[in-house]
C-alpha cells in the first residue's frame, strides 16, 4: 500500500525520532521528531517514506525491495539493529520510536552509512568457488549431495544487511575485524565440498582481525533477519584455526587440507 | 563545504555493562567464580602438603559461615557457567549433518546439559559411597 493510501485509513499516530545528519550543515548528528499516522500493516520503512513524501523531503535513507531480501534498509530501530521493512510501527505505538543509522558505521547522511569497509571485507575472502581442478564444460557440473549442501546452506542466505556488524561490540572496538557477515560468507565457501581454496581463506581467519577478534557475544546471530547464524561461522573457525595451528607440527601442512575435508568426498 | 563528510559516532564506553550485552558479561564473569573455586581447592592441596595442622585449619575454614556463603555463590555461578557453556557449544562446532539434515543446535545443548547433570549425580553418588 503506498504511504498516501495508508495515511487515508490511518486512525493512530506514532511519534518517531530520527537521528539526522546533514553533512553540509550539521557538525554532529541531531534528533528530529516527527508524528506519523499509521495503519496496522505499515512498516517502519513505510513510516519513513511517509515522512519523506509528506513531512520532510530532505530525509535520506536506503531502501529497495520492501520484503527483507535486498538488505538495504538496516537501521537501529528502538536501539536494536533491524530491517525497517520487516519491523512494524504498531509494535512501537504510541512511541516515541527512535530510528538511527546502523551502529559502528560512519554516517554519510541521515540513516545512510558508509559501506566501503564492508564491501572490501567481502572482496577479501575470495567470495567465489575455487575448485581444485577446472572441469571442461563437457565434463558436466560439480556435483554435491544434499548433506554436503546442508553443511553451509544457511551461510549462503546472507543478504549483506550488516545488522550483525551493528550488533557486534568487537567490530565497534576494532573496525578492521572482518566481522560476522564476511565470516559467514567465508564459511559458505570453506564449507562447500566443491571448493578447494580453504587454505587461502584460513590465512585471513588466523589473523587478529580474523576469527580471534570475536569473543562469542552471540548477539550477531540474534539480530540476523535471515537466520544465517554468523556467530556459528566465526566461532567454528576459531576451532579450525586452533586445529590448523597444531596440525602444522605434525609434518603435513594444514594448507594441503582442502574444503573437501569439511564436506567429505563427493 | 561540499562532498561527503562521514561522521563516526564515538564508541560507547562500557558497552558490556548494558543490555543487550549484560547477559554476555555475566556469562563471562561466571568464569571468575570457577577460577575462585579452583583457588580454594589449590589452597587445600597446599595445606595438605604442609601437614595435618594446616590441613585441619583449611577444613575449619570450609566450615565457617563465610566459606559456606562463598561456596553457595560459587555453586550458583557454576550452574550459570555450565548452562551458558552448553548454550554456546553448538556455535563453536561445524554443522552436524545426519541423514541430510542439520542437527538442531538446541539438541546439542540439551545433550551437553544431560551429560553434565549425569556427571553431577555420579560424582555425588561416588562421594556418598566413599564417605567413611
Task: Write a brief caption for the model.
With 266 residues, chain A is an alpha+beta fold.
Description:
The complex is a heterodimer of chains A (266) and B (132). Chain A is α+β, with helices and mostly antiparallel strands. Chain A folds into two domains: 3-113, Ubiquitin-like (UB roll), CATH 3.10.20.30; 116-263, Fumarate Reductase Iron-sulfur Protein, Chain B, domain 2, CATH 1.10.1060.10. Helix content of chain A is 34%, strand content 13%. Chain A has eleven helices and seven strands. In chain A, strands 2-1-5-3-4 form a five-stranded mixed beta sheet. In chain A, strands 6-7 form a two-stranded antiparallel ribbon. In chain A, strand 3 (74-77) and strand 4 form a beta hairpin. In chain A, helix 7 packs across helix 10. The N and C termini of chain A lie far apart (48 Å). The model of chain A is unreliable at 256-266 (pLDDT under 50). Chain B is flat. In chain B, strands 1-2 form a two-stranded antiparallel ribbon. With 132 residues, chain B is mainly alpha-helical. The longest helix of chain B has 28 residues, at 22-49. Chain B has a single domain, classed as Up-down Bundle (3 helical TM bundles of succinate and fumarate reductases), CATH 1.20.1300. Helix content of chain B is 68%, strand content 3%. The interface between A and B is medium-sized, with 41 and 29 residues.
Give a topology summary.
The complex is a heterodimer of chains A (266) and B (132).
Chain A lengths: L2 H7 L2 E9 L9 E9 L5 H12 L18 E4 L2 E4 L13 E4 L6 E3 L2 E2 L2 H9 L21 H5 L12 H5 L1 H5 L5 H12 L7 H9 L12 H5 L6 H18 L12 H4 L3
Parallel strand pairs in A: 1-5
Antiparallel strand pairs in A: 1-2, 3-4, 3-5, 6-7
Helix pairs in contact in A: 7-10
Chain B lengths: L21 H28 L2 H12 L1 H24 L8 E2 L2 E2 L2 H26 L2
Antiparallel strand pairs in B: 1-2
Helix pairs in contact in B: 1-2, 1-3, 3-4
Amino acid at each position: 500500500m503506498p504511504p498516501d493510501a495508508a495515511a487515508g485509513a490511518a486512525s493512530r499516530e506514532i511519534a518517531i525520532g530520527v537521528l539526522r545528519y546533514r553533512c553540509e550543515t550539521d557538525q554532529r548528528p541531531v534528533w528530529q521528531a516527527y508524528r506519523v499516522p499509521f495503519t496496522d500493516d505499515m512498516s517502519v520503512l513505510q513510516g519513513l517514506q511517509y515522512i519523506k513524501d509528506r513531512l520532510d523531503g530532505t530525509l535520506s535513507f536506503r531502501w529497495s525491495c520492501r520484503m527483507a531480501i535486498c538488505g538495504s534498509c538496516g537501521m537501529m530501530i528502538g536501539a536494536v539493529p533491524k530491517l525497517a521493512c520487516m519491523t512494524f510501527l504498531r509494535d512501537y505505538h504510541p512511541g516515541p520510536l527512535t530510528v538511527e543509522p546502523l551502529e559502528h558505521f560512519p554516517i554519510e547522511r541521515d540513516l545512510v552509512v558508509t559501506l566501503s569497509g564492508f564491501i572490501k571485507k567481502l572482496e577479501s575472502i575470495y567470495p567465489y568457488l575455487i575448485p581444485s581442478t577446472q572441469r571442461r564444460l563437457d565434463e558436466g557440473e560439480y556435483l554435491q549431495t544434499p548433506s554436503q549442501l546442508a553443511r553451509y546452506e544457511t551461510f549462503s542466505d546472507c543478504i549483506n544487511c550488516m545488522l550483525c556488524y551493528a550488533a557486534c561490540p568487537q567490530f565497534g572496538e576494532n573496525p578492521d575485524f572482518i566481522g560476522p557477515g564476511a565470516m559467514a560468507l567465508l564459511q559458505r565457501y570453506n564449507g562447500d565440498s566443491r571448493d578447494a581454496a580453504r587454505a587461502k581463506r584460513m590465512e585471513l581467519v588466523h589473523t587478529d582481525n580474523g576469527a580471534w577478534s570475536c569473543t562469542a557475544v552471540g548477539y550477531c546471530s540474534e539480530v540476523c533477519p535471515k537466520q544465517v547464524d554468523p556467530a556459528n561461522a566465526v566461532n567454528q573457525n576459531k576451532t579450525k584455526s586452533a586445529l590448523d595451528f597444531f596440525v602444522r607440527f605434525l609434518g603435513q601442512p594444514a594448507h594441503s587440507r582442502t574444503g573437501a575435508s569439511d564436506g567429505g568426498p563427493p | 563545504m561540499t562532498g561527503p563528510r562521514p561522521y563516526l559516532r564515538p564508541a560507547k564506553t562500557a558497552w558490556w555493562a548494558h543490555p543487550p550485552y549484560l547477559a554476555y558479561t555475566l556469562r563471562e564473569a561466571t568464569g571468575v567464580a570457577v577460577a575462585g573455586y579452583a583457588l580454594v581447592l589449590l589452597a587445600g592441596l597446599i595445606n595438605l602438603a604442609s601437614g595435618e595442622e594446616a590441613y585441619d585449619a583449611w577444613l575449619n575454614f570450609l566450615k565457617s559461615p563465610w566459606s559456606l556463603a562463598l561456596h553457595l555463590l560459587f555453586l550458583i555461578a557454576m550452574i550459570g557457567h555450565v548452562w551458558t557453556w552448553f548454550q554456546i557449544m553448538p556455535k563453536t562446532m561445524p554443522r552436524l549433518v545426519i541423514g541430510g539434515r542439520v542437527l538442531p543446535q538446541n539438541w546439542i545443548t540439551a545433550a551437553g546439559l544431560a551429560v553434565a547433570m549425569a556427571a553431577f549425580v555420579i560424582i555425588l553418588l561416588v562421594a556418598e559411597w566413599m564417605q567413611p
